[in-house]
Structure to design on (956 residues):
């Protein structure tokens, strides 16, 4: 509940984040170290994220499936870089049905290997291609420093796994899904993102190329918010995924994978939230509108609740996700509670509003007088739909302005270090792993991605001064 | 693919079932023993089952959440009968992040214990009750004799977990959810079910009472298709789930759980399928209608495909799930393939149909001439909606007639044994565990449930002749 004041976002961003997650009933700590329980309010947001993504996946020709969580240990060893990358993070089942297993089973950290094994069996001919499958599940990567939604031993996500007849098709798929993520982030979550390629040291274990969308959180730090990987023929060769082409020749497939996880819930909290709590982007909000009835006695209650029920029915009819708060609590308590939980729009209805056939409105994104207004009850659903659109746009604009104000193009390494304290630096970089490692050591900033949009003029590396391969976004990351 | 003939359903039901599951691309074996891959076509059916149930859960006030898959071993030991029931089936993680764990983690076989631990923490007052949470996830029960969908080491399901202030409320919830399952089974899946209480020896480990819906498969055997459990205060006491009542007294809660799993996919296959393959109930079918274009040359193709595209658009507009099969295969091949996959309605469009502004129709549930007809293209969507309703009803009626014809009321134990060979026996039973065990030993039949509808006359046990407590449904079960 919201009786206690939240920690200040400006003063202690990490504490503010933890307090919101717990007090808004988004999530809780699981009993096994590193694990998370996503509570109903947090899960409702995740379900809306799932629906928005799933619609886009199906519109681009993908289908869902269910794969086992257990992967025989030797599968992981088939792709050398993959096993190196994931070995330190594995949870391993060694006992089943009371007996020691002959071969231990890994709880999937990601499913490329078990998918590779199945695709090798299923794909025979070019007629079977492309295979475009997505999985909604949870995966386990051993992790003891829990940060709810951002870093947990088990997290929920989707993982797309596709196989293609040509490199070009697989490359196009990788880009297509990165664009799906960017479209989702910007148009559903109101979270502006940079799209680009990961550096060699930041890419996925086993990928030829990894791409990501990167968002700036309210403290200027980066959150990798979705990734898309091009595997070339690495997994196809490791698992022998082959097809007979039109000329009757055996060919290895070209594969990709792409994922977005419950981390994104963290992004929504950290991009939009303020000192009063969460601010949910209307398109994903579990409740888009909350109605708080206000009355002092039974006679008032009756007339107010009659209006509330009528308005609720009208909003439901218009497909607005509306919540009526009829708890036995004061209006003030309810206002604070729903502000903390980030409901985009509040409707207050008291006896005066009933008499005037109007309602009082409060926008969550504009606390104080600026966000307050009155509206006639007639046509309220249409008014709500317009206001929700306005709030959605306003959240995006604010996040974009913040990100742009905190993304700079420093002239030298001293300016670069100052820029990193505030946000992102978009800087020329030599492309060398050693140089990247030194920057990280000195500033805690990593290359987030190498944006697709590159300047036409050449430049020199912000750190070492050697000729640059282009510009990269540097930032401290979650 | 469907080139090969399926095994005969009458001659070898088990082989017929396995062949359908594999050839219709419903599922495949996973690499770890006992595990299953649900392929996209099977998953699409599961998604429709999920949607139909989820809508009902939400309409009855439930919300979804996400709980961790890992449960500390000592949690299971808190409820004595629970750990006894599940111990032999556990998969245990003993290594995490490369190190031996101090306490092993169980991969959830069901979540009562981890839910109990969370509810104890979350519930403080009567104002917090009831808690009505559902989880969509997968669980693991060690199992080496794989039968796809029916018996696998990992399966997908939903598990509802509720906590209440009184025994009456918890009992009512248990019944409510059993009724939700029965409504779903009969009205969405066209699978008639018996509702009743499980015997003491068949009930859930840790429950005071278990209830189930029981369906008859095409071979006369029973499939427990959904269960609902009343725990009294067992888990509340084991996990100390307490609330402060209105009189400021600490009280233990009363809890329930209820689940329905991917086993239900097996029920749909075994209740409706025939020698040509699957028959999907229209309300859950991934594709409700398939359109097969028929043409001999490019000119015919152009005019046929124009009509196909127009009709497809009209059906989509009417929310019919329609698939156009434009593969480079013969119409005959396509007919067999979609019959095997059980699409309820087929539309054929050839040059003559284009000329006549009509289409040829074929009902999957009535193979041969009886299911064939023609319909005008005008108003086709409305025609389809009506025919899909007819097919849905016809599948239910057929399954009900079959079940009733194979459920008998034997006069003596010899007749009982004969009845069990065919299907269910609805027989007086003394209620004793020993008697039930002997019947099982002698006939392989178990008590499926004790139906709520009971005769008013007393009777004697079909096996031992002692006074009966009422009638039970006996049957051999999957």
């Amino acid at each position: 509940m919201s009786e206690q004041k939240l920690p200040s976002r400006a003063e202690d961003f990490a504490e503010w984040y933890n307090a919101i997650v717990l007090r808004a009933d988004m999530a809780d700590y699981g009993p096994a170290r590193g694990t998370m329980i996503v509570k109903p309010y947090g899960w409702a947001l995740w379900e809306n994220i799932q629906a928005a993504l799933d619609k886009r996946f199906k519109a681009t020709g993908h289908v869902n499936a269910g794969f086992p969580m257990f992967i025989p240990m030797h599968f992981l060893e088939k792709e050398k870089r993959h096993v190196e990358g994931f070995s330190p993070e594995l949870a391993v089942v060694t006992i089943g049905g009371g007996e020691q297993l002959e071969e231990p089973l890994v709880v999937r950290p990601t499913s490329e290997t078990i998918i590779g094994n199945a695709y090798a069996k299923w794909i025979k001919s070019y007629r079977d291609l492309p295979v475009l499958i997505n999985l909604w599940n949870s995966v386990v990567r051993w992790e003891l420093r829990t940060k709810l939604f951002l870093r947990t031993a088990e997290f929920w996500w989707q993982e797309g796994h596709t196989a293609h007849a040509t490199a070009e098709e697989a490359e196009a798929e990788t880009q297509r899904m990165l664009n799906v993520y960017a479209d989702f982030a910007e148009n559903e979550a109101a979270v502006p993102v940079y799209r680009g390629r990961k550096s060699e040291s930041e890419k996925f274990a086993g990928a030829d190329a990894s791409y990501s969308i990167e968002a700036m959180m309210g403290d200027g730090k980066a959150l990798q918010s979705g990734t898309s990987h091009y595997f070339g023929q690495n997994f196809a060769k490791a698992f022998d995924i082959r097809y007979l082409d039109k000329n009757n020749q055996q060919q290895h497939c070209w594969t990709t994978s792409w994922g977005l996880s419950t981390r994104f819930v963290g992004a929504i909290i950290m991009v939009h939230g303020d000192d009063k709590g969460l601010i949910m982007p209307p398109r994903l909000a579990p409740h888009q509108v909350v109605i708080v009835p206000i009355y002092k006695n039974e006679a008032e209650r009756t007339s107010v609740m009659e209006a509330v029920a009528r308005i609720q029915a009208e909003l439901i009819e218009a497909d607005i996700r509306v919540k009526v708060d009829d708890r036995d609590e004061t209006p003030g308590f309810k206002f604070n509670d729903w502000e903390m939980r980030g409901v985009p729009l509040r409707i207050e209805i008291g006896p005066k509003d009933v008499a005037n056939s109007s309602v009082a409105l409060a926008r969550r994104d504009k606390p104080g007088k600026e966000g307050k207004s009155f509206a006639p009850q007639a046509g309220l659903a249409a008014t709500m739909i317009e206001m929700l659109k306005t709030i959605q746009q306003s959240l995006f604009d604010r996040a974009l302005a913040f990100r742009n104000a905190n993304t700079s193009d420093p002239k030298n390494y001293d300016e670069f270090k100052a820029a990193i304290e505030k946000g992102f630096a978009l800087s020329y970089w030599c492309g060398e792993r050693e140089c990247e490692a030194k920057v990280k050591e000195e500033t805690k900033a990593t290359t987030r991605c190498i944006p697709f949009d590159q300047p036409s003029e050449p430049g020199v590396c912000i750190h070492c001064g050697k000729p640059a391969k282009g510009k990269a976004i540097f930032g401290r990351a979650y």
Q: What stands out?
A: Chain B touches chain A through 57 residues (CB under 8 Å). Chain B has 14 helices and 23 strands. The CA atoms of residues 360 and 374 of chain B lie 5 Å apart. The mean pLDDT of chain B is 96.
